[in-house]
Amino acid sequence: MRFRIVAIAALALAASSAASRAADPRYPDWPCTQAKVPEVSLAAVWAGPPLDDVQDKWKDNAKVGALVSKLAARKTPLDDAEKSVKEFLASSASDKTANAKLLFAGLFDTLNAQRSSVMNGLERVTRKQREAADRIRDDTIELQRLQDATPRDDSKVDALSNQLIWETRIFEDRRKVVRFVCEVPTAIDQRLFALGRVIQQEME
Amino acid sequence: MQVEMSIVMRRSRCRDGAPPLPLAGEGWGEGISATKIPQEERALSRIASHDAIRPPPQAGEVKTARGRTLRMLGTALPVALALVAAPAHAFIAYVSNEKSNTVTVIDTDSWTVTKTIKVGQRPRGIDFTRDGKFVMVAVGDDDTIQVIDAKTQGIVDTLPSGPDPELFAQDAAGKVLYVANENDNTVTVIDLEKRARIGDIQVGVEPEGMTISPDGKTLINTSETTNMAHFIDTNSRQIVANVLVDARPRFAEFKHDSSELWVSSEIGGTVSIIDPKKHEVIGKVTFEIPGLRREAIQPVGIGMTKDDKTAFIALGPANRIAVVDTATRKVTKYLLVGQRVWHMAFTPDEKYLLTTNGVSNDVSVIDVAAQKVIKTIQVGELPWGIAIAP
Hints:
The complex is a heterodimer.
Chain A: H1 2-19, H2 42-45, H3 62-72, H4 78-90, H5 96-148, H6 154-181, H7 184-203
Chain B: H1 2-16, H2 38-53, H3 57-85, E1 92-97, E2 102-107, E3 112-118, E4 123-128, E5 134-139, E6 144-149, E7 154-159, E8 165-170, E9 176-181, E10 186-191, E11 196-202, E12 207-212, E13 218-223, E14 228-233, E15 238-244, E16 249-254, E17 261-265, E18 270-275, E19 280-286, E20 302-304, E21 310-314, E22 320-325, E23 330-336, E24 341-346, E25 352-357, E26 362-367, E27 372-378, E28 383-388
Antiparallel strand pairs in B: 1-2, 1-28, 2-3, 4-5, 5-6, 6-7, 8-9, 9-10, 10-11, 12-13, 13-14, 14-15, 16-17, 17-18, 18-19, 20-21, 21-22, 22-23, 24-25, 25-26, 26-27
């Protein structure tokens, strides 16, 4: 039992030190192998007319606002989202260009914000993982001390062993989820680009 | 958005009553009682658990879309094959997908995917044999080049490259193949008829771009780390000149009249124009896109029209193809294609140019005369190279 716990703890610590080795010194808390790009620049996804005159105006247009929410949600399949864009712009007639600009401005703001919140979450979790690794290290040392103590308090040893198993398991689990979540910023980039491309095609 | 959120909140509330058992893939918020900012944690766990149910989000979404395409193809395939058999103007394009370890086959008449071929690991460089009978694809992580029969669209053989082959070039007769092996700083020479290795050439660190002069006498290899274009005499197999270019040269392309060699530098953000006789840089193409940071402009693939008047240059994460007037060496137009555009190929009639877009997992079709993007085709994950049947 004792060996197992120590082994698990060692594994967790090895993992945490690997995770803390940030590739980009500017972002020490960034846990992903994917490079951190803090913001999508407008020019990377949009070659249409300037959006300077649109700014936050999309928020005042209820129809556009609702559509932005629907299209930005990743549960909406991309095919359906693209279809909705086409339908919306087809029914816009003379306001087509204005509506297209409003819609893209809304998607750009919303998806960029979504991206930021995911990335902040990832960095926050990295910091928590570091704390968790420290705790596991301390508890492991404490457990060894309890096990070697004479007389030995078995109930304390059991309690701490259990705690250590949970801590390690939670740590491992978070680590796996981080790997999934690391894919999310790219998924959002893809969505923003794909929707922007459809909007621009419909404008032509 | 609102609805999605409330459902998850309800779900997590149910679980709050249960003992803190962190289930696989749901271990952020719910299982951890010491959470200091439960609201924020939940927001993140929504993303996490939502996506953890179906594996990685990106892969999941793509798979759904592709799954549908594939199912449609089940019925469309016989029809497509009939079309291929008929003497139509349709060409067949093969695209290597670096991440999904597949090659996508596209029919350029219907612009649809007609087949997805499973290949080795990390397929990148891809080209047809000169007779159009076979497609060769470098599968870097398997340290070999696989040969696909264009008729049966199945793998029939492998070629003996060195470790981690990335790109390759063949002579005009289609008899000799030169392979850049990224991992051991060599170029492997292969006899294509015998499918046997006949030699190795030592080159710079991380050899990458490969091309042969139209007369077949000079092989060009660019090395990523030493920032050079090596000129290799194909007879003696010796390096005869090294030309320094900007950081991380990725791709080299001759003008059809042999008067110039164009070399793209991914990090330098330029294309160097080299006089292949004097071995000197005689000009540079630079790029500027308002609103984009310089480092987002990373030139890689180059395509030159047969009249040598127009060059198309893929700009990676700038998501654009630059159209360059080769006389003035200036960009005349930028075309927004897909995310991280990398390589390209013309249809033999030069009506269309197809580009591979690594991050958006698609291929863009450019009408060459109109200089306009007319179509986007979803392919596998991380499309890298493309070859079109001669």
